[in-house]
Predict the 3D structure of the following.
Amino acid sequence: MSPVYIHVVSDQQKYIEFELVQRAQQGDAKAFEELVILSDHQVLNLAYSMTGSLTDAQDIYQETFLRAFKGIGDFRFQSSFRTWVLRIAVNQAINWRKKKKLKLFFSLDAQNPGENDTPFLQITDDSDASAAIRSGEILQQIHAAMHTLSSKERAVFSLRHFQEIKIKEIARMLECAEGTVKNLLFRATQKMQKALAHYIEE
Amino acid sequence: MSTCRTIKEKLVLYCYDELSDTEQAELEAHLKVCSACQEELAALQKLQADVKSFSVSNDILQPTRRALFYKLRNMSAKEQPSSPWWNIGKLALQAGLAIVLVFFGFKLGKNQSQTGSNFAIKDLLTASRTISVDDGSISPLLVGIDKITFSSDGAVEISYNTLNKIHIQGYGNDPAIQHMLHYALLTDDPIARLRAVKALEKLASMNKKLDDSYFTILQRILNQETNIGVKLTVIDILGTVQPQPQVQDILVNAMLADDNQAVRLQAFKALLGGEYQIAALENVLTITKSDSNTYIRTKSLELLNKSKGTSL
Ligand SMILES: [Zn+2]
């Protein structure tokens, strides 16, 4: 019987990733781009939720993947590629905060975060116009509330709440105990509640 | 109530679905009788509803990504035009019926707690696999590999045990063939695995080198395989390819850690035959000089003495 034309389609995310990483490690730039596409929306979202500024988020995004590109040779499959780049992004975002802390402290950013950014955002489930306006307001409130968190609390809250990553994975990402992550999440939630209390009451 | 404080912490975890079944049952029992905690839960749920997930729009993501790719392309000194692995044009032989191979069934999340290396490989092994033919019906199950053959010019043909014989042909360095061989090496079908390592052995002896992607898999086989024949073949493969640090590491591991004498001996011989620097192996030899295998023991001592002699 004659051989047939075979077309391989794989939706095994993990296996695709495994092969892409190996090719990227051998210097295949296209494979690295594929890896970026698999993970970059989440990286950008994380950076945005942690900084409240789109330009900062874009800078962190670029820095994260440039680091990943340079360091891909050291990737040893001890986590997924996504976890690995998110870890880089979180650390970037935390350091970013430290760098910008003084500036932020004296600027109005905290009171009026990301004013120009709001129109670019998609609120996931609001459709009508008045809801959209309300969402814009909520976003500003949320960013302001996020500024009341410590950088670690913000990292944990962003990862668990916005990125929906499980505590176990976050603990590995931040290289700390699960109990620590739980504590940070608890404190972050309390602070968020407090910061948003006046708004949510309305 | 004295437990309310601890409950308060657990409520947050409850909202994020992060409690164990017992903890959840305990908490729900408490909620039934404590109105203060009910209030607290309602407030948390309100927070969750108000602070919704949002995502940066695609209109922002796309130019951000383009800027990154532009930078990356400038960074990588040389472009390596290589076909993506799903492009199997190269091994297209006769366009008859198009068969779509779909692998699925990953238990995502299930194994995520496990650290350790080869995370991706571990998950791959839990995958179930089915083939669907072009009309979409999931028909012949991929029961295994019937045979793997080589032609003298280095072409590989993998035949599957399917109802309507499927053959995949291509050159050993073709990404698609590598993909299928990786899969065959990792399958839990012991016969297919044996055939895959035998195939790889021929590929290795023909080319004297192997794509790096195989080495992680070969290390894994040495760690987990129960068939001694498969293990010994893996050692032979590693002894055939050009000496390199990654291969040396795997061989040293096998020599030091394998339970089976024959495997240790084979790895020992592969290292000695592979022009590895004896000086670099000195630490290893001080361990193997007390191996339970006589040959390994005496040869290690002899080499150690020789190496001492030359350095003096
Ligand atoms: Zn209570």
